Amino acid sequence: MTDLILHHYPESPFSEKVRAIFGAKGLAWRSLQVSMVMPRPATIALTGGYRRIPVLQVGADVYCDTALIAEYLDGKGSGPSLFPASQLLAVQTLARWVDTELFWAAVTLRFMPENMGNFFADPATAQAFAEDRANFAQGAQVRRPAVDEAKARYARFLAEMEAQLGDGRACLFGADVSVADFAVYHMLWFIHAGGGMADWLAAHTRVSGWMDRMRRFSEHPGEAISADDALATAHAADPLPVEQVSDIPAFPPGTEVNVAPVDYGVMPSHGTLLRCDTQTIVIRREHAMTGAVNVHFPRHGFGVTRY
Ligand SMILES: N[C@@H](CCC(=O)N[C@@H](CS)C(=O)NCC(=O)O)C(=O)O
Fold this sequence. Notes:
Elements: E1 4-8, H1 13-24, E2 30-33, H2 41-47, E3 55-58, E4 61-64, H3 66-76, H4 88-110, H5 123-136, H6 147-164, H7 179-192, H8 198-202, H9 205-217, E5 223-224, H10 227-236, E6 245-246, E7 256-261, E8 269-276, E9 280-287, E10 291-298, E11 302-306
Parallel strand pairs: 1-2, 2-5, 4-10, 6-8
Antiparallel strand pairs: 1-3, 3-4, 7-8, 7-11, 8-9, 9-10
Helix pairs in contact: 1-3, 1-7, 1-9, 4-6, 4-7
The chain binds glutathione.
Glutathione (GSH) is lined by residues 12-14, 51-53, 65-67, 99, 136, 265.
C-alpha cells in the first residue's frame, strides 16, 4: 500500500497540480478529502496551524506547499526529473510566477459570474465559503487584480505560451514535462473549470493541445483514506531523521518557533526548529492525535519567527 496521503479537495487548483504530478511520476496515492472550508481537524493536528491545501503526509512527515511537495515527489517517482538542471532557473521562475501572480488573476477570472459554473452547490455553501475565506485573508499581503487587469494578464500569458510552443515542442521547456508545466496546468485547469472562457483556450490551438495532454496525468485517482486512518498512520510512524542546522543565528535548532507563509493564509505552525536552510524549514511537533511529527515547508515564501 502506498504511503503517500494527499489532504486535498476536488475544487482546489493547487491540489490538482499534485494530483497530476502523481500521474506523471507513476505514483499511487491515497486521498484524504477535506472540506473546502474550515474546520479540518486532522490536517491541522498534523500541520500545527498551517491551513493551506494541499498537504502531503508520508507517515509522520508532513510536507506543506506544492513547491516542496513537487520536489519531494520528483525524487520518489519514475521518469525524467521535473527540475531539469539545464533549465532550472527558467523552470522555477516561471512556476513561482504562475503560482503567485497568475494565481491572483486566476482567482478573479474564476469567480466572474459568467465563469463560475456550478462552483457552489447552493447559496448556503457560497455564504460559508465567503465567511471562511474572509478569515483566511486576514493578515494577507497580496493584491487581487480587477477583472480588466486579470484578463489582460491572462491574455498576454496565453499569447506568450502559444509562441513558446510554436516550434512543436510537447512541453513548455522541451520534450519532457517540468514543474513549470504542472504549475501552468493547474492554473489553466482552474480558470477553465467553470466553462465560461472556453473560447480563450480554443483560440490558442497549441495551448489547447498541451492542456489535453496535461489533463491525462490526473486521470489516476487516489484510494480513499479516512482522517482517522491518516492520523493512525502518523501515530504508528516515526518522523524521518533530520540533520539539525539553522542559517538563522538567533534561531538555532531547538528554538520554539512559528513558521508561516509570508503572503496569504498566514496562520502559523508552531513547533521546535530542526532545520532551516535555503531549501527547507523543518519543525518537530507533538500532538495527542498524531504523536511526534516533522512538518516541512519550503524556505522560499515562508518566514520563521520566535514563538
Ligand atoms: N503556494 C501554496 C498555495 C496553496 C493554496 O493557495 N491553496 C488554496 C487552495 S487551492 C487554499 O489553501 N485556499 C484556502 C483553503 O483551502 O483553506 C501551494 O503551492 O501549496
